[in-house]
């Protein structure tokens, strides 16, 4: 296979044709932040956290989907790049339920880690902040759309890796949602409960059902659980 040599942050690296800038950077231990990227599984350039500056290109490019070409010169740390990543992250955070203290993924959340790494202390954008129903009807998992960052990693692992395909994206723009077909509960589609969507979710939008959730399934009306945004609010009602 043809070999391509490019320069990243002043370092030359040679990689096979077809390699992305992100993978070339990883080869020489240059860290580029990613959120939606899953190697060979979800390479869709959705989150734009991995943007880099390509010499000669007018706009910043998502390195996870940008193939190398001979002589490319890349900057991963210019002020333009750092500013763009921060703005992108703030935009994602602006529409994310940031009740981290009660989130099962707190301290193990890729979004939280990126916020620390990029030193995001406040979110400048108001965001849409829709209230979504919490799907607790499944015997083993809980889906919280208010925490979803639309990275589509769950869709790719469900469809392309597991061959199940019960999750998909619906609507456009601010109305975009990741959901089982026809906005059904995960309990009402052919989910096999493999848990791969949970494992690959970067945030707390999908989680295993814990013992407390199961108790509420037994003593409460499960239908109530899908009508409000957070489980504790349901329990208090
Ligand atoms: Fe490249 Fe999300 S990691 S766009």
Write the layout of secondary structure elements.
Elements (H helix, E strand, L loop, with lengths): L2 E6 L2 E6 L4 H7 L23 E4 L6 E2 L10 E3 L3 H16 L15 H8 L16 E2 L5 E4 L8 H9 L5 E4 L6 E4 L15 H5 L5 E3 L2 H9 L2 H4 L5 H6 L1
Parallel strand pairs: 1-5
Antiparallel strand pairs: 1-2, 3-4, 3-5, 6-7, 7-10, 8-9
The structure holds FE2/S2 (inorganic) cluster (FES).
Which terms would index this structure?
Ubiquitin-like (UB roll), Alpha-Beta Plaits, 237 residues, single chain, 8 helices, alpha+beta, 5-stranded mixed beta sheet, 3-stranded antiparallel beta sheet, disordered C terminus
Question: Which percent bin holds the helix content?
Answer: 25-40%
Number of strands: 10
- Overall shape: it is globular
CATH class of the largest domain: Alpha Beta
The CATH topology of the largest domain turns out to be: Alpha-Beta Plaits
Can you walk through the features of this model?
The chain is of the alpha+beta class and 237 residues long. It has 2 domains: 3-77, Ubiquitin-like (UB roll); 129-236, Alpha-Beta Plaits (2-Layer Sandwich), CATH 3.30.70. Helix content is 27%, strand content 16%. It is built from 8 helices and 10 strands. The strands form 3 sheets. It has a 5-stranded mixed sheet with strand order 2-1-5-3-4, sandwiched between helices. Strands 6-7-10 form a 3-stranded antiparallel sheet. A two-stranded antiparallel sheet has the order 8-9. The radius of gyration is 20 Å and the shape is globular. It starts with a strand and ends with a helix. The relative contact order is 0.13. Mean pLDDT is 90; it is low at 221-237. The structure holds FE2/S2 (inorganic) cluster. The site of FE2/S2 (inorganic) cluster has 12 residues, from loops.
């Amino acid at each position: 296979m043809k070999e391509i040599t490019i320069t990243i942050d002043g370092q030359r690296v040679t990689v096979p044709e077809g390699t992305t800038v992100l993978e070339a950077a990883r080869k020489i231990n240059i860290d580029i932040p990613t959120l939606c990227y899953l190697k060979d599984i979800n390479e869709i350039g959705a989150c734009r956290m991995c943007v880099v500056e390509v010499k000669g290109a007018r706009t910043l490019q998502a390195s996870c989907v940008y193939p190398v070409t001979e002589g490319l010169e890349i900057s991963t740390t210019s002020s333009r790049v750092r500013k763009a990543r921060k703005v992108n992250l703030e935009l994602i955070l602006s529409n994310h339920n940031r009740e981290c203290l009660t989130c099962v993924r707190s301290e193990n959340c890729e979004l939280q880690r990126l916020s620390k790494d990029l030193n995001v202390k406040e979110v400048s954008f108001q965001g849409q902040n829709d209230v979504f129903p919490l799907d607790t009807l499944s015997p083993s998992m809980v889906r919280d759309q208010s925490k979803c960052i639309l990275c589509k990693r769950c869709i790719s692992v469900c469809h392309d890796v597991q061959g199940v395909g019960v999750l998909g994206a619906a609507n456009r723009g601010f109305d975009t949602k990741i959901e089982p077909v026809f906005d059904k509960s995960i309990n009402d589609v052919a989910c096999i409960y493999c848990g791969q969507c949970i494992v690959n979710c970067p945030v707390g939008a999908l989680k295993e059902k814990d013992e407390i959730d199961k108790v509420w399934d037994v003593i409460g009306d499960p239908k109530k659980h899908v009508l409000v945004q957070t489980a504790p609010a349901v329990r208090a009602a």
